[in-house]
Design a protein that fits this description.
This protein is an alpha/beta fold and 258 residues long. It has a six-stranded mixed sheet with strand order 6-7-8-3-9-10, with helices on both faces. It has a four-stranded antiparallel sheet with strand order 2-1-4-5, with helices on one face. It is globular and about 50 Å long.
């Protein structure tokens, strides 16, 4: 287990010395971590501990205040967004799929069109090829029969599965999930987690997952990372984190959510 290892040729995402401040509030305080090929890392912790901010820095929805982020060979830091940097961010994002707490589907588009809209913007995209791949992705997430439905006619779990298919349509090298089930009723959570599990076990998709779903973490994660007040307080394989917690803060949090 490569706990804490930010080196190696199989690193897809590398975060080094990452700080993020909003005015006087320092949300991330010198974070170092990495995601390796085929690895699922579950990030957990209390609200406001910096988990979602980390993901948003990885794909530059937020610019780091200090430190660097490297994804698929693109290494960027904070600072002013020059024309060159904006282009680098665009290229970096082509390698990253992200699924949010809210589904963010286009309400005027069908499920199929939502999945197709990203790839159709790429140079050389052919409608029939994009459509075929989008239908295949909807089938993978169990929604082949909902291709022509609009989001308003889908349940929350179905909308989130469309959002996952939409992210996969860009053929990312890594997927980021920011509390993807927290807006769902408990009975709909399982169907989304089942899709995420299949991505990990069948596609071996590298994933950074912010979640409080500890059952998913226990079953699917290669590594768990506990955030506390903007730093990584503890990390390790699930059996260690659940069975031999090193820090009282981690144990207190787990006792509260389990």
């Amino acid at each position: 287990m490569r706990v804490g290892d930010v080196t190696g040729n199989d690193v897809l995402v590398r975060v080094e010395g990452l700080h993020k401040r909003f005015g006087r509030l320092e949300v991330l305080r010198g974070v170092d971590m990495a995601l390796h090929q085929g690895e699922v890392v579950v990030i957990f912790g209390r609200s406001g501990s910096g988990k979602s901010t980390l993901l948003r820095c990885v794909n530059f929805l937020e610019d780091p205040t200090e430190g660097t982020v490297e994804v698929a060979g693109y290494r960027l830091g904070g600072g002013h967004r020059t024309r060159r940097k904006r282009e680098q961010i665009r290229r970096l994002r082509l390698h990253v799929g992200m699924v949010f707490q809210q589904f963010n589907l286009f309400p005027q588009l069908t499920a199929l069109d939502n999945v197709m809209c990203g790839p159709m913007c790429l140079p050389g995209a052919e409608d029939k090829d994009v459509r075929r791949r989008a239908l295949g992705l909807l089938d993978r997430v169990g929604l082949a029969d909902k291709a022509d439905e609009h989001p308003i006619r889908l349940s929350g779990g179905q909308q989130q599965r469309v959002a996952i298919a939409r992210a996969l349509a860009m053929q990312p090298e890594v997927m980021l999930f920011d509390e993807p089930t927290s807006a769902l009723d408990p009975e709909l959570t399982g169907e989304v987690l089942a899709v995420m599990k299949s991505l990990a076990t069948e596609m071996h998709m590298p994933m950074l997952v912010v979640t409080h779903e500890m059952g998913f973490a226990r079953e699917v994660a290669d590594r768990m990372v506990f955030f506390h007040e903007g730093v990584i307080l503890e990390e390790g394989p699930p059996q260690q984190v659940f069975g031999a917690t090193r820090h009282p803060e981690t144990r207190t949090f787990l006792d509260a959510v389990l």
